User: Fold these one by one.
Assistant:
Number 1:
Amino acid sequence: MPQTLVLRRPDDWHIHLRDGAALLSLVPAAARQFARAIVMPNLRPPVTTVQAALAYRNAIMAAVPAGMAFEPLMTLYLTDNTSADEVARAAASDHVHGIKYYPAGATTNSESGVTRIERASAALEAMERHGLPLLMHGEVTDPAIDIFDRERVFLDTVLEPLRRRFPSLRIVLEHITTAEAAAFVTEATGPVAATLTAQHLLLNRNAIFDGGIRPHAYCLPVLKRESHRQALLAAATSGNPRFFLGTDSAPHTRANKESGCGHAGVYSAHAAIELYAEAFEAAGALDRLEAFASLNGPRFYGLAANEGQVTLERLDWTVPASYPMGDDTVVPLRAGHTLHWRLV
Ligand code: NCD
Ligand code: ZN
């Protein structure tokens, strides 16, 4: 058994850093783990313009601790009204790396999202032309569709037609949760990739109901059954460069999670790379972690891999029951449990 694991410095291709006082807690945690991160734009109000993205970037940079290097890779929030001009400005910016599609009503702060994807045609056409990636929350919102089927139905009813209309559009299917999504990405002919979270590689939906209702295991897309977890782990560890690390670390305060209507989101930035190491080791694929965490993402986004390395050591440690988040607290993934890898 290896006692240490040396990786090229990794990046997180999907994170929620929030804003306001929370930035001072969340940015250092991300920067400790990752050199760069694709930052989600689902603030209130959402980040819909390059100007807003640059202001948000400045706020993030102000929260990076002295002596630490961290580069936020900004995204815009796609709406029915996103113009081709705004897409052109985004493509010309050194700091904007993609545009995020939230189906209206699908998840946290998605009210301003796209109501029907046809309404975003001008923006999508411009993105295809400029080579700017579309990052998709891949779920339908039809309340008649079972929540466990919303990703699978999205593939057939939204993604497949979109691929036919815009075959050169660069697409990242975010936080995939099903065997069908993994197969879709594996078999796609064009520039399609996917991010995978640690929780979807480590947990199945039983975790939400383990001895009682477990709000801290609830995220969207919701955890699926074990056969899906196994398919996702197989995809992540396959060596296929279309699959890469995106934590979807999505902190909510303890009070907002432990509530009669708890918010969706799992906080994993406290131990992201350790959690992925655990998943890859369980699959006997530790040697594939570096490509997944540090090489495949930059390659898809057309960026250089990071210089420098990080070291993980085999060391048991207990995840704290909570971490500060602004004036509040957030309960992390695996709170109170023992992890077996530790980032040095
Ligand atoms: C995210 C959040 O809280 O912003 N929640 C989640 O469960 N993943 C939104 C999202 O990415 O769906
Ligand atoms: Zn997310």
Number 2:
Amino acid sequence: MKNSLRTLALASAVLVAGSAVAIPPPPPPTATELAQSGDDPAWSITEDLTTEIGPRMAGTEAESAARRWAVARLQAMGFANVREEQFDMPVWVRGEEEASLVGPFLPQKLAITALGNSASTGAKGIEGDIVYFPSYDALVAAPEAQVKGKIVFIDHQMERAQDGSGYGQYGRGRFIGANAASKKGAIAVVIRSIGTDNHRTPHTGGTNFEKGVTPIPAGALSNPDADQLVRQWQRTLRMRTKETALGYTPEPLRLKLLLTPKQVGQQHSGNVIAEVPGSDPNASPVIIACHLDSWDLGTGAIDDGAGCGIITAAAKHVMTARQPRRTIRVLWAGAEEVGVFGGKAYFEKHGTEKHAVALESDFGADRVWRVDFKLPASAKALEDRIAAELSAFGIVRGKEPAGGGADIGALVAAGVPTLDLQQDGTRYFDLHHTPDDTLDKIDPVQLRQNVVAWTATLAILANSSDAELP
Ligand code: ZN
Ligand code: ZN
């Protein structure tokens, strides 16, 4: 690692860790100085990609332009064997999206966005009675008669957590809620966004229908709009209880929904791969991954432009310092958001090759606070070395085994060792998959801390012996 980089790293680490030190540290460089230091490929990759390409939905012309951009950039940075590996995948594109509560109160517009794989309501839209469920589990437990012919609403406000652990639990409403609602005969599903902010920016993301289940229109409301729907639902419920007791016909809560996305069939996507060739041709490579595609609402800065910036900057720093023993393979995967098609395609093509270890950065750009390992027993001393190196940057050693990331998921499932540089996810789900995922949300100081942690880790892994990592 270069001395200048280490100085900046220590300054960043002290700043972001807020650790108690006896002597006050020298003033850290300002964010602008870091961003403009000329030694920050992580920032320039993220800035250039989000500025020159912007949103890059998998399988679209924008993603293909991003791949051409990526090949040119990686070649210009001095990487070897830069190439595109194409594959085909099914493509869904967004259409119009509108929702209004239309009764029993006066009509009110809601901020909604369609979920990936949502069916269309048709150009005229649909209108229906809402049936409320506090959670995905409550929907699954409900009798069919309660759901049939209705628009299902799934509540369940996601909790904020540093490790982002709420995503799996609360995310089910998005991942498989529409599938469960369709099986019970719902005409559409609307969920509370899987997000922790209180802005009127709904969070998109994919929803999945099992084979044989009819896709239905599926959208997500922003948190404040979901709150509004819930308040109207509660009032309608109270009115209904009163009216039924008095013998009136109660009025249900009604929603008008217009979503016109479409499936446009199989299209090209692809992975972009670059390498730092190792000095030992017999040593198995280290693979580091991010994903190049993004959702279409924002410019994909935190998800996952920054991840590509971080891993590539680290590989560049290791390459500049001296040739590593092992080859470092950089994978900018395509089509992650819509079903991890790039990760699967990489595994189909390269899964039988030996990989020493696989790592991924796909959780924003805030600082790394913990390192988790899932390495073979032979790598115990290597783990200790990495943990000791990272402790200087305010990073603690986790007790749970590393999980890897989506694009390296198939490799890890097949037994390739992995290591997670866990990023602080406290504010990640304020921005995730919203129009707010833009460059200004990235803190250059924290981005730099990521690069330093990655550089230190990658330098050790890429120079490890076969006895440590077979
Ligand atoms: Zn991602
Ligand atoms: Zn994502």
